[in-house]
Amino acid sequence: MSKEKFDYFINGEKGKYEVVIGLEVHAQVLSNSKLFSGSSTKFGADPNKQVSLIDSAFPGMLPVINEECVKQAVRTGLGLNAKINNYSVFDRKNYFYADLPQGYQISQYKNPIVGEGKVLLDMPYGSKEIGIERLHLEQDAGKSIHDMDPSSTYVDLNRSGIALMEIVSKPHLRSPDEVNAYIKKLRTIMRYLGTCDGNMQEGSLRADVNVSVRKVGDKNFGTRCEIKNVNSIKFMQMAIEYEANRQVELLEDGKEIDQETRLFDTKKNETRSMRSKEDAHDYRYFPDPDLLPLKLEKKLIDDLKKSLPELPDNKKERFIQEYGLNSYEANVLVSEKEISDYYEEVAKLSDKKLAATWMIGDLFAMLNDKGLNISNSPISAKNFAELVQSIKSGEISGRIAKEVFEIMIKSGDNPKKIIESKGMKQQSDPKELEKIINEILSKNKDKVDQYKAGKEKLFGFFVGQVMKLSGGKANPQLTNEILKKLLKG
Amino acid sequence: MSNITNQSLSEILESIKSKKISSLELTQAYIKNIENAKKLNAFVTTTFDQALENAKKFDNKPNNEQLLSGVPLAVKDLFCTENVKTTAGSNILNNFVPSYESTVTKNLWNNGAFLLGKLNCDEFAMGSSNETSFFGNVINPIGDHLVPGGSSGGSSSALAADLTPATIGTDTGGSIRQPASFTGTVGLKPTYGLCSRWGIVAFASSLDQAGPMTKTVNDCSIMLEAMSGFDEKDSTSINKKKETYSKNLKDNIKGLKIGIPKEYRVDNMPKEIDELWEKGKKILKDLGAHLIDISLPHTKYALPTYYIVAPAEASSNLARYDGVRYGYRSQKGKDLIEMYENTRSEGFGDEVKRRILIGTYVLSSGYYDAYYLKAQKIRQLIKKDFDDSFTKVDAILTPSTPSSAFKIGEKTNDPVSMYLNDIFTVPVNLAGLPALSLPAGLDKKGYPLGLQLIGKALDEQKILNIGYAFEKNCGYKNEIKKWWS
Lengths: 489, 485
What we know:
The complex is a heterodimer of chains A (about 500) and B (about 475). Chain A has about 500 residues and is an alpha+beta fold. Chain A has helices at about 65-80, 175-195, 235-250, 300-305, 310-325, 325-335, 335-350, 350-370, 380-390, 400-410, 415-420, 430-445, 445-450, 460-470, 475-489; strands spanning about 10, 15-30, 85-90, 90-95, 105, 115-125, 125-140, 145, 155, 165-170, 205-215, 225-230, 260-265, 270-275, 285, 295. In chain A, the strands form 4 sheets. In chain A, strands 1, 2, 6, 7, 10, 11, 12, 13 and 14 form a 9-stranded mixed β-sheet that branches. A 3-stranded antiparallel β-sheet of chain A has the order 5-4-15, with no helix packed on it. A two-stranded antiparallel ribbon of chain A has the order 3-16. In chain A, helix 2 runs antiparallel to helix 3, helix 7 (about 335-350) packs across helix 8 and helix 7 crosses helix 9. Chain B has about 475 residues and is of the alpha/beta class. Chain B has 15 helices and 11 strands. In chain B, strand 2 (about 70-75), helix 4 (about 105-110) and strand 3 form a beta-alpha-beta unit. In chain B, helix 7 (about 215-225) packs antiparallel against helix 15. The two termini of chain B are about 20 Å apart. The interface of A and B includes residues 62, 64 and 292 of A.
């Protein structure tokens, strides 16, 4: 991996600008029921079928905290190397909107459940630490559906009350690429922990993006704009790109940037003003009197800490140490827990290094091609390991292996069986090979003479002939050795 | 059996148990009383058919092992009752029929009682005279021109007029104790968290607490025992073993220390309130209790603190009433926002709007620290005052209210003078403590006056015992002429 230099700046006539980005990521907590009610959180149900009296704010209904959601937030906090607060408070964030039945969202304001933490990013220019400001638990709102009817808006409350973790980064990000790496890293960590499925299509992971620009070398931050509710990494990157350039243009024209909330229009690829600072909501936060402060016992935190799975940073280090992988290979193989599990199963049964090369190369290319995940790969880890082992032992050549691999995809068969039944086993018997080679040399006496006269390029021709005659099964290494020996003689 | 309805709950329970009267006869007697008392306007909804059916069911298969076997009860219309309209005294819920039963009422029914009807109250329990109800003001049986107190005014009126053998109210700043005091009845606000708030239309969540309103202290202990208990559906509910208040009721209070807080002797307090307090002290002293002067120095801040905290919570609690999912919806307005605005303008009365405005204001950025945050700090100091005192005394004796029942309309145009009526009751809510209002005498107009016994958190048994001893020696009896029938 080449050590590149960080190079994301916007050049204006008046100077060179750097982009400062902070993210508020909303991650849906993986749990069977909602944050304060027993309703199901399953995605894709018919509208308003997963709504309890609490979620729809009937008179006299009271919230009761879902302990599993609390544990999930603590696990995530631990995964972000963050301080877990053993005292936190749920507050009411008051605002009036059609998809918010209570008229307030239960959130955490001054006392979040998780404090400062950090996330490590692997960038081409080295590793970079991004600070986490806080993580808090809050309820999701319902969903307003504006495009079902020309004159009405429909409201689906299935999402109302589902637990979200809002993960607020420090303004440490400096480019769309870093945002990409950061979101992916958060997603990986949470998927390892099983605290969020990270499914952006289903809205399990969304972000508000804060963007400002300043001249390189400036100590103070510029005025920031918040781009609300962007739900894909690609759109986040596009929005940042657009927004940063818009801000630089304003500054270049000697204008000021208004602190405001903006929306990203994915069709026009531009951000536009949603509301200014003056129009900002006054949320009238105050502690929710229906809920007692959340007190976490040290034992609970310790137990959760002990039961934490190995996280990607540690796993990567282990892969490098234990399996002799390079940093790039280790990075790719820990990017998803399922991938690392698959790899470890393969590595247990075969050559570790070769397994990594073949997984990152052929297996990923195939999965990518077919739009599949490692978990629904047509080739089982056991079969893949056998394939790797067949290559390693010299039973088949790399070229034949590619053929076997193709057949495995289609049939799901065991590679031994394929090699056996199709007679694809590599010819590695020196005597047999000598026989084949002698036959070729005697048929091509003219070429042998030319070779001996100095036309060494012809070596490839002889190899090709051996492969042709052996049906591609000749052991290439042995073939080379024997050929050289016989041509000398 | 014509006068069964003027007996106490415990006497009635005895009569049912010994089969002197059937549940059906009892229910019919109350129905007759209610039908003759329409002038009092104590009921919003009656459930006579359902009650008669339940009474028959009981008589066919009597189970006398329960605390409230075979007894019909009317309850404040703030408790959600399954399939029975629940209005909270508000237009905005005038058509609301819950599909669920509040924990407290469910506890009553599980103890053998059944519903007789829903009692009028101030709108969303905001008021001290039952004049803010959308369903009209309630009249005090003591006199046709008097308010019954509030917000549980329908409850106090119905109880004093023999329209229900006992009842329940809710008390956010005095809404059980003040109407009890105005009608010569017993009212208890339990420790915050002793009775579940689940299914009670919320006013101010950190202060609201349901409690019994009865004719005697013994009745009060029976009702409290039946209605209280831990509820996992209410996060502020206290998880503790259930107590048997009625079985443990004792009238020996010898040696108990009773605190007399000097701050409750307020300016311009009528002489007769002072005299009543003196009478109360003497009764307790004669029973062997020790009177100890104490100080609750932050008492004077309680009322302003209360009128910040309660509206703040109310402004948020009442945001859900938007005319969409249940309740009243205005037919006016050309879009969603106008529908909301018209629904809330037409659905809420003036007092509710006033408190929503105050509450929204005190929580607004720029004012939060000066009002809400400061009020929270004072609330802690008020609580600490009580905590300090309870290291020295077992209970505290004060007047329940600064006056007897006032005239209908007397204070409706002066909200502050109305709020001042809660001056002795709100500190208890802010501190989350139990307090019992006992009928203790009459003023010179012949209207009832009450004394308040404040206890330590979860010390209901002790104040009930003191109240029980007091009641036996006070000699107070409600003599109400049934002028309305």
